[in-house]
Amino acid sequence: MTPPRLIAALGGLLLLSVPAWAGATLLNASYDPTSELYRDYNAAFIRHWRAETGQSVRILQSHGGSGRQALAVMEGLPADVVTLAEPRDIDAVAARTGLIAADWRRRFPDGAAPYSSTVVFLVRRGNPRHIRDWSDLARPGVVVMSASPKTSGGARWAYLAAWGYALRRSGGDDGRAQGFMRAWLSHVPVWESGARGATAAFLRRGVGDVLLTWENEAMLARREAGGVAVEIIYPSCSILAEPPVAVVDGLAARHGTSALAEAYLRHLYSPEGQEIVARNHYRPRDAAALRAHAADFPAVDLFTVASLGGWAALWRRHFAEGGLFDRLTAAER
Amino acid sequence: MARSTVLPGFPLSLGLSLAFLALVVLLPLAGLFLHAAGLGWAGFFRVAFAPRALAAYGLSFGGALLAALLNAGAGLLVAWVLVRTSFPGRRLLDALVDLPFALPTAVAGIALATLYGPHGLLGAPLLRLGLAVAYTRLGVVAAMTFIGLPFVVRTVQPVLQDLGSEPEEAAASLGAGRLQVAVRVVLPLILPALFTGATLAFARALGEYGAVVFIAGNVPGVSEIAPLLIATRVEQFDIAGATAIATVMLTGAFLLLLAVNMAQLWQRRRREGV
Amino acid sequence: MTPARPSPWPRRLLILLAVVLLILFLLLPLLTVFASAFAHGVAAYGAALADPDALSAIGLTLTVAALVLPFNLLFGLAAAWAVAKFDFPGKSLVITLIDLPFSVSPVISGLIFLLLFGLQGWLGPWLAARDLRVMFALPGMVLVTLFVTLPFVARELIPLMEEQGTEEEEAALMLGASGWRIFWRITLPNVRWGLLAGVLLSNARAMGEFGAVSMVSGHILGLTMTLPQQVERFYNDYNTVGAFSLASLLALLGLLTLVAKSLLEKRTPTSGA
């Protein structure tokens, strides 16, 4: 083949950008730790939908960092539904593109969060450092592992859980709460970029006395470590983490999947959906499912993000560039 | 204008190269600058030259430079051994050289962090010697050196191969000492390739993210590399901020690379002019 | 080899140094990867590779690498010919532009294409109106990989072509050979090892690239996941064996191309001799 013809042939091949899916297909853009949950749930929903309507449906999953996934939807990832880690990410898609209706929180029960989780401690077997509550993190000599709240959604929840505890203990005194935060933040030797990196450093490289992580991550980590090397510790109080879901109205309408997308998210709240949620270590909303898995999910005194001032305000104050997190971690170095 | 214009194909080859560069490199980078410009001068300076960003540039550029120097030495040695000597297992080692490219950078980072971690195979003995690698600046340099090694080996190797051993042998038969041969005869011939390899290793280390973040401590102002700052901004939908930091990195890299390439070209012209 | 050489010890010492260096710095990380991959035995390793998502990722990675390769070849040869055989103003600028993609952080390499072809970008709305999907599909991944690997072949060839000079080509020209003929018969055979090295490097890098591709792939399981991304997926799913099995496969793919190179070298006598 002569070079010009080669170029032409290759150019043609590159431009051949066929939209890769057609027919009754649904794309769920989700965040990192949910891939097993939705693998189970998708299989169940496909059966449910066939029984209900007689139609076959194909469900595609996409998983990545919650913020990156939101960015991808804004830039054209053809997702019909988003199931992300933080409401802020769905708000961002709604505000910047209008693809999601601004009132998405009211479209499904429980603020459009069909499952919840919380932040717990993972410690080494026998809890040699006697870490029982948040105050123990600030004790001299305790090494705390956490991913960076700047890059990891899970770490943001962990940070806010500590912040909520600090405010309670100080009776709402902001200055004293900051003092507590500064104390334990200075015990974090390394800011891993992702939750999984922090877990790996804790489990495999033996870094740190305690790991702050999602409840569902802690359960998976315990299983990975063979169930004996580490223990999960529930602090006196923690945060109610509510990963939200939404239909990407604009795209679903274009794909002709609006009803399907709606039903897909709705079924998460059904007994079957809630059972799958619980089996994958997320706390179900349904009281019956929660009772059935009571042994897995001890009752914890949980406070909400709203009680701390709401996501938008918390974000501006704590996580924005030059915010409180930056100042608290910079001050002591 | 051109030195050896008798050869054909100059307009075609240069035109093709420039068209490629314009489409694949310049156009996307223009978008980068435009987004950064959206901040305005004041905003740009506030983001791009904050103390934390300055510290990160220092670590990224300094670490990459150190890694490039280490690679120049190690890479030259490895290339020479692979081309000029023969011993059992040589081919296997030859194949190993490309490993840092083939492994996904995050895997490389995880493997390095495991090896050099406080309880790792290499990290534990080093720690006993008082040398902490993981989660320090040293870890950053180690990861940067790892990903850059193939560049020097693979640019020097073909030139050494092409030279054959005649110059060395001729000089040796004229009574020159081994070291003298290496420094006076071989080194000048492979210097351009060595320089190119080290430059590329530098460039690559500068931008690397995945391999480095797992072994760097990511502590602001101490062991936080500039690409991490960029990733953080992207995570927060702060595209303008991300592109501002990227613009500084890119401009710095461009000027450094340009200086190196100009110096090399100048040196080459001078040598050929004599 | 040659009787003129004195004591073999300095040479042996250098070999030893290089071997130790490579073992500590390259072989150990590789062994770490394999040790994790086979942590639960050979069967688990095989099962991890037979996972449908893994298979799809392998296919996509090979496709992307194969699509990128010809562009890299073409650009590399053209750029090296222009830069190494001719002298022109702005030459160092062109070389620097070729180097530049290496220094761009992978997040940014992906982001700049997202900003260009994404829905909020310059070309995105135009493409979307025509139902052409570049981002979150194969073309976007090919483009980004091309950006990341663009410098390899050119940068490998330039020093080699410079070192060889232009005498052979000029002699052939005087004998009346055409430009294409000179290129195919003289230049190309002369640089074939450098070309091969460049191709192998860019290929290894194309298959191993993660950060940049991850910005534009959309991470759709079984559809737009390349091998490195699938590695991350498995890793994040606590499927360590799966992650490291795929990582070892990537390393093996790299080694495989090297074996191919060795075979080629054996069949044809070395050019330098």
TrEMBL record, chain C:
Pfam families with a match to the protein in the record: BPD_transp_1
Domain ABC transmembrane type-1 intervals: 58-265
Coiled-coil blocks: none
Keywords (A to Z) from UniProt: Membrane, Sulfate transport, Transmembrane, Transmembrane helix, Transport
Membrane protein topology class: Multi-pass membrane protein
CC annotations in GO: plasma membrane
Annotated localization: Membrane
Record NCBIfam families: 3a0106s02 (TIGR00969), permease_CysW (TIGR02140)
Name of this chain's protein: Sulfate transport system permease protein CysW
Lineage: unclassified sequences, metagenomes, ecological metagenomes
